[in-house]
Amino acid sequence: MAKEIDFHFKSPKDSPGYLLGQLTMLWQRKLKKVLDPLDITQTQFVLLAAVGWLSKKSDAVTQIDIANQSNSDRMMVSKVLRTLQEKGFITRQEHETDTRAKIIRLTNTGETVLQKALIEVENADLDFFAALNENLPSFNSNMVKLIEKNKAE
């Protein structure tokens, strides 16, 4: 007979990692439904949103800024930004003072797609998390704590 495997948790429902993984998959599935008609992936949306958000405060948003804002791998960000450029959603221009950096800007088409995507994603989020009711602010606060504690790893 095979050796019995020891689990720390008595049930998958006791495992925060398992639950987070399940929740994430369900949420991503919901977002895919609303983003597919706009011809963008969730990762593309996240980076477009980062460009849009950072552009509110700076005219010189770089790839590194976007990676930091989205807690994303720099190489992955570079690849996805190239795809977004090919789709006509962003431009990448030489930085005036840093020859290694590129300035990333939304195009008019990118702004339009991002605005449509924001409406769809925000509505999907409100629907997805509606069951939390008045507990949503606490849920968000706990997620922020976890992100802050673990983002350096």
Give an overview in words:
The chain is mainly alpha-helical and 153 residues long. It is built from six helices and two strands. It has a domain of 92 residues: Winged helix-like DNA-binding domain superfamily/Winged helix DNA-binding domain (Arc Repressor Mutant, subunit A), CATH 1.10.10.10.
Give the SSE order as H and E letters. Answer: HHHHEEHH
At CATH's second level, what is the architecture of the domain at 41-132?
Orthogonal Bundle
Uncertain spans, ≥5 residues at pLDDT below 50?
none
Overall pLDDT metric: 93
Q: How does the SSE layout of this entry go?
A:
Layout: H1 16-35, H2 42-55, H3 63-70, H4 74-86, E1 90-94, E2 102-106, H5 108-128, H6 136-150
Antiparallel strand pairs: 1-2
Helix pairs in contact: 1-5, 2-3, 2-4, 2-5, 3-4
